[in-house]
Amino acid sequence: MVPSSFAALVSSPLVVPGVPGAPELLVILLVGIVVFGLPLLIVAGAVVYFRRDETIEELEERIADLESERAGRESAETGDSENS
């Protein structure tokens, strides 16, 4: 004999035996995020960090080049104004 609560549970269209409910799906989602998302985030962060170091060095070189150009122009302008 089948209990009446089981019969009511099976006859309900929203509850299918063997299919995980909302709490189980939430746990599965969180585990998936930790297993796949966290390593991906770490790798992406490392790539951004190491690319940023190269970019800072390139910018420092560019600043040094621009400062030397500016110093050259200022010396040329002061030399021109003294000759005039």
Question: Top keywords for this entry?
Answer:
84 residues; mainly alpha; 2 helices
What this model shows, in words?
This protein has 84 residues and is mainly α. 83% of the residues lie in helices and 0% in strands. The protein is built from two helices and no strands.
What layout of secondary structure does this protein have?
Blueprint: H1 4-11, H2 22-83
Low-pLDDT parts are none
Radius of gyration, whole Å: 34 Å
Which outline best applies?
rod-shaped
Number of strands: 0
Beta-strand portion reads: under 5%
Summarize the structure.
The protein is mostly helical. Helix content is 83%, strand content 0%. It contains two helices and no strands.
